[in-house]
Amino acid sequence: MHDLNAVEYDRLLAEAEAVKKHEAVRVQTLPLCDMCKGFTTKAHYDCKTTDGPWGYLCEKHFRSNGMGLGLGLGQRLILED
Ligand SMILES: [Zn+2]
Q: Is the pTM of this model over 0.70?
């Protein structure tokens, strides 16, 4: 049995809050970015894109093509630990 430190506790609280607001989802493994050439970069978002369809986006493509976070927009992917 180990105690969570304060930083870890705050992170978990923030994540739980984001999940509740549909701004984040927990995943077992991170998918690869749909927009990176060669699909080599891990995606951190499942998000509606400026082109219309949804896709898995890395940090860079989320900033350039993501519509945002929330219900109907997109979710940040949180890796289960
Ligand atoms: Zn990308």
A: yes
Residue 1 lies in a domain: no
Query: Which residues span the domain enclosing 11?
Result: 6-79
Across residues 38-63, what is the average pLDDT? 94
Amino acid at 1: M
Find the 49 Cα to ligand 1 centroid distance in Å.
Answer: 12
Report the relative pairing of strands 24-27 and 45-48 from DSSP bridges. Answer: unpaired
Distance 4 CA to ligand 1 centre (A): 33
Q: How far is the CA of 55 from the centre of ligand 1 (A)?
A: 10
CA of 18 to the centre of ligand 1 (A): 22
